[in-house]
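Lab meeting minutes (informal)
Scribe: AK
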Amino acid sequence: MALAAQDAADRCEQLTVLTERLTELAAAQAQAFEQRRPNAAAALLEETSRLANLYRHESARIRADPSLIEGAPLAARTALVRATEAFDAVLARQGRAIEAARIITEGLVKCIADEIAAQRSQVSVYGSGGVQTSTVAPTAITLNRRA
């Protein structure tokens, strides 16, 4: 999938619009992560992935052949540069938000695992003499007779 640009100015304008839309989506996803609403970020994933792929493709084409935008007016190229700078800033914000969500999630998983392990090792039972003893919790064992 590629942009259907008529000339360098058109390509520059389309790429600017694409970059601005990706910036909006990335900002919305970052805000959703910051507000601890990952499902809201996930709702934007399909459009973000599609547009990011197009952006990646067009960026690679321009890197390989800069003449694709060299003929564009200075104002159009400047607008593209500004849109790209804003996009980079939002991507950095989104990266921080995703990293924070990852750290929180990993912390929660570790706390839950530690609590389960603590509860398993603190089982108290009454022995045959009527005295309460602590034992390790029973663990299921699966046997495979074919082994």
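Next up, CB showed the second protein from the same session:
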Amino acid sequence: MEFKDRIRLLRREAGWTQRETAEKIGVTYRTYQNYEAGASMPSGTVLAKLAALFGVRMDMLTEDVGHATPDAVENPELSALLSEMQALFSGGKLHDEDKKYVIDALTEAFWRSKEINKKYGRKKNDHV
């Protein structure tokens, strides 16, 4: 099952319209329609919002997607980290803009760490 089919199924199971779902994740109605049509893929931030909204892990939404996906999906370590962060986002204590800043900061920190570790030949369990 493709990403577009998964989100359509989850949305219908929740009893929401496309417009309601778009509002819940902070995108336009047309943008959400494009996700379900398979015309575009959401950013990592929106993907995290969708996963939190539907109460699933990000990889459950994106597994076996046959075209370009966000960096978090391509790297299992980052995907796992962002999935764990969804619990924080589900509580509704952060504003959407703040959530985006957290995800962007984590993504940037993750990739910088990977570059530094590669530069110095460090392995996953090596400590400084």
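CB comment: Helices lie at 3-14, 18-25, 29-37, 44-54, 58-62, 71-74, 76-90, 96-120.
No objections, moving on.
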